[in-house]
Design brief:
Chain lengths: ~425, ~250
């Protein structure tokens, strides 16, 4: 089969786009003016200018209104202080705290971990740096065939973030904690993570970060390296977030990412993953629970460009009281990527008639010896199962919670570490119990 | 202990009357069997007693130890002592059998103001009861009824019954789809629960289950009514002659 790869989905020129892009750029500036990153940042600014910021008519923004994410000022978001121990608190980890997008040395652990170098982006101001090969580079690769202007904007303007280079097996996770303190904060963070051959790292993230949060994470996973990512997005009801993960995978490498989202008025999580080495494996999963003023969008693009790779996308959404869930997921299998095993499932559990779930699953395959499957479902809670549980004495609310957890289980199972999985499950159960109590 | 008087039930969504005046009393310590042709309303009766939605009681009453059952939510009925072994046990992907059992046991204890069972005691109890029903540990770990064979599902129902120790056990065609060995296991499980304080309502199509679980009273149900009540010999009569004669007799 000949490779006729889809053309880049170009944004259409529009006066409104130009205006809104200019207005946004006018209140921002380059995140650094010296050192190696300047060139990468300038290139990113050029990308932003040529693409323009997202508009509602853009192919991948039809279901998620970009306005609040590109407005010059962040819409305010009040700070939510749930009376509970912060997530991952019990995990032995290296804690790195950002408050409204600014690194806090005071609250963080020393940035030290055997086999890993951890550096602040803004402190890496030398002219030559390993990260220059990656910073904005994976993001730039990910701009085709679908443009992602908010990520380019981030590369240009990011004011903080970490450069993490992993040479061995990290003995404990690095845990990024994003605290939200100001109702008007607008944070732009950019992390670069490079796993050398055979290296292994678990990265944890949690917290709302800011009233509005733009985050990019570029991850380079070399041959036989393993990267685990577990994230719990902050529960501030009014917070907004646009996040991107760009990952590149080498031979026999592993990439696993799981995101739990509860609350948040607007979330757009994009993952752009390229499997470039044979026998690599990428799993991206997410579970969200939205109640009321909640819009959650998972936009995933997985490219198979090597032999015998496996990818899984598993996304579950529990929605009620008018909450909205979006899934846009694509598997692209390039010519020659034989023996590809691609799987994609997106499902929503609608707890009432007001909530909506929209899904756009896409497969584009140019190799002939592949197994790809995808499915998307949307439905109410299974009444038969509910009755069965209740007939055994389980009260309605508890029965519903069991069903919600059961629904989410397939996504949670994508977390490899049993302790982390148990912790998230515990949290989820607690939130459910309280919500109904 | 169970008193059903003149129970009339129709479908909620449709103008279809299914139970047309059921009268039935089950005493503690007794096993009552209900037999009857397909579609006569046996499952409906069991569902209405356990509180499934979709039905509307238009007349009559049902009480358990003097308490009005029809007014309660399904979970309240369970706490009051009603247990239905389903004709078609429901599969619940994602909910572990053990989690389910423990949640149920503790929920009922809580509803009765009793203390929750400890994890260790629970485990011991389940293992013990599972063993007699030849339910292996693997089955307990799997999601509720998912991937279970017909026989495994039915044994799982009896395990739940044994764990929950209800006052009124309703078995809806628990024998259907069982081979001889499984039938023996299930019957032994039921017989082990026979007790002075417990009543049984065993719904079945065939006499063969009643060879194992000996009934005290047999009722024949047809077209939404109990048309005849007798001793164990009534089941044999049905086995030999079918329902035709009985039906003709009534008309
Ligand atoms: N939910 C339902 N929807 C439609 N018809 C029903 C429903 N439940 C029961 N029925 C009808 O009521 C009658 C009695 O059914 P059922 O109680 O299952 O009988 P049995 O268990 O004796 O075979 C049948 O005609 C059946 O089709
Ligand atoms: Mg039936």
């Amino acid at each position: 089969m000949t490779a006729i790869l889809s053309e880049t989905i170009k944004t259409k020129p529009s006066a409104r786009r130009d205006e809104e892009t200019a207005a946004r750029l006018a209140v921002m500036s380059a995140g650094a003016t010296e050192g190696w990153s300047v060139a990468n940042r300038e290139a990113a600014l050029e990308r932003v200018k040529s693409m323009g910021l997202p508009q509602p008519r853009d192919e991948y923004w039809r279901w998620t209104r970009p306005a609040s994410l590109i407005a010059p000022e962040a819409p305010t978001a009040s700070v939510f202080d749930p009376a509970e121990t912060p997530i991952f608190d019990a995990v032995d980890r290296v804690k790195v705290v950002f408050i409204d997008g600014v690194f806090s040395a005071e609250e963080s652990d020393p940035l030290e971990l055997a086999g890993v170098s951890i550096e602040r982006l803004v402190e890496a101001t030398s002219d030559i740096h390993w990260a220059s090969e990656l910073y904005g580079k994976l993001e730039a690769r990910g701009q085709s065939p679908v443009e992602r202007p908010l990520a380019a904007l981030n590369t240009w303007a990011a004011t903080d973030g970490l450069l993490i280079r992993v040479t061995g097996k990290a003995e404990k996770p690095i845990s990024l904690i994003y605290k939200h303190a100001s109702e008007t904060s607008d944070a732009t963070l950019h992390h670069v993570i490079k796993l050398e051959e055979g290296a292994e790292l678990t990265l944890l993230e949690n917290g709302p970060a800011a009233a509005r949060f733009n985050k990019v994470m570029e991850v380079d996973v070399a041959d036989e390296a393993r990267f685990h990512h577990v994230r719990a997005q902050g529960r501030d009801h009014e917070r907004r977030a646009a996040t991107h993960i760009f990952a590149r995978l080498g031979r026999e490498s592993l990439f696993k990412s799981f995101t739990l989202t509860a609350n948040g008025v607007m979330t757009r999580n994009e993952a752009v993953i390229e499997l470039l080495g044979d026998d690599a494996m990428a799993h991206v999963a997410g579970a969200c629970m939205g109640d009321g003023d909640f819009h959650h969008d998972d936009t995933v693009f997985v490219t198979h460009d090597a032999l015998n790779c496996e990818s899984r996308q598993v996304f579950k959404k529990v929605l009620k009281n008018g909450a909205q869930g979006i899934f846009q997921g694509k598997i692209l299998v390039k010519d020659g990527a034989q023996k590809t095993d691609g799987y994609q499932i997106s499902q929503s559990l609608l707890l009432d008639g007001d909530s909506t779930f929209l899904a756009k699953p896409e497969l584009e395959i140019y190799a002939d010896d592949v197994a790809c499957s995808h499915g998307s479902t949307s439905g109410a809670m299974d009444e038969e199962a509910l009755f069965y549980l209740r007939s055994r004495g389980v009260p309605m609310a508890e029965a519903q919670n069991l069903m919600v957890i059961a629904f989410i289980a397939e996504a949670l199972d994508e977390i490899e570490d049993e302790g982390l999985r148990a912790e998230l499950l515990d949290r989820l159960t607690g939130w459910l119990d309280r919500r109904r109590g | 202990m169970l008193e059903i008087k003149n129970l009339h039930v129709k479908l909620e969504e449709e103008d279809k009357q299914i139970l047309k005046g059921v009268d039935l009393t089950v005493e503690a310590g007794k096993v009552h069997a209900i037999m009857g042709p397909n579609g006569s309303g046996k499952s409906t009766l069991s569902y209405v007693l356990s509180g499934r939605g979709g039905y509307e009681v238009t007349e009559g009453e049902a009480t358990l130890l003097g308490e009005d059952l029809l007014d309660m939510d399904p979970e309240e009925r369970a706490a009051a002592g009603v247990f239905l072994a389903f004709q078609y046990p429901v599969e619940i992907p994602g909910v572990g059998n053990m989690t389910f059992l423990r949640t149920a046991v503790n929920a009922q204890r809580k509803a009765r103001g009793e203390e929750e069972i400890s994890a260790a005691d629970f485990l011991k109890l389940v293992r013990e009861k599972a063993k007699t029903l030849k339910i292996d540990a693997e089955m307990l770990k799997r999601p509720v009824n998912v991937g279970f064979s017909g026989g495994e599902k039915k044994r799982n129902e009896i395990l739940q019954m044994a764990m929950l120790e209800p006052k009124l056990c309703i078995l809806d065609e628990t024998d259907s789809g069982l081979d001889v060995d499984a039938m023996k296991l299930v019957s032994d499980g039921v017989n082990a629960l026979r007790d002075e304080g417990r009543g049984f309502l065993v719904i079945t199509h065939y006499q063969r289950l009643l060879d194992h679980i000996k009934p005290d009273v047999v009722h024949i149900m047809a077209d939404g009514r109990i048309i005849k009540t007798g001793g164990p010999e009534l089941a044999l009569e049905v086995e030999q002659n079918g329902y035709a004669d009985l039906l003709a007799e009534v008309q």
